[in-house]
Amino acid sequence: MAIGVKVVARPRDLGQQAYVPALVKGLGVTMRHFFDNLFGGGKHIVTIQYPEERAVYPKRYRGLHRLMVREDGSVRCVACMCCPTVCPAHCITILAEQTGNPNEKRPRVFEIDELRCVVCGLCVEACPCDAIRMDTGIWSSPVALRGDAVQGKADLMKRGALSTAVQGGAGGDWRDKQR
Ligand code: SF4
Ligand code: SF4
What we know:
Layout: H1 14-18, H2 20-39, E1 66-67, H3 82-86, E2 92-98, E3 105-113, H4 122-126, E4 132-133, E5 150-151, H5 153-158, H6 174-178
Antiparallel strand pairs: 1-4, 2-3, 3-5
Bound molecules: iron/sulfur cluster (2 copies).
One iron/sulfur cluster (SF4) is lined by residues 86-89, 91-92, 112, 117-123.
């Protein structure tokens, strides 16, 4: 397929060639905003002086993730890979390792890139054993390097707490026990 070249005609009149009207118009917009912000009480200013000023977070803001722990202080996560599978931002990285229990694994590496996270909460919904929660209310701190926004297993467990859920649930015969 031949690729055509679009020829754009040069402006012919002097006003357009000098770009003066457009320049004056642009300056007019700038000056309007300048005086509006100076004498208008700053009501149109949308930026804040962070970190001296803090934005008011919505009441339902969830905050950073945390990894829940068991009675013995070990991580509840069994490295089932449900959360990285469901995560739409692909920001969860888990490397699993064996435990002493042949029925369970655990994460050797558990990382969440909080800069990529879209705070959807799907990881929390997907977890079958209440191992990951988003209820800390803590917001991400500003970081100088992108890698500093990656929260590791130790960071996530530091915010964790003992879960009230029973590891492994009530077992496969829970219906029989209820009868
Ligand atoms: S909240 Fe959503 S985007 Fe963030 S880690 Fe969980 S699933 Fe991924
Ligand atoms: S869904 Fe829960 S148990 Fe599975 S890997 Fe994620 S945090 Fe661990």
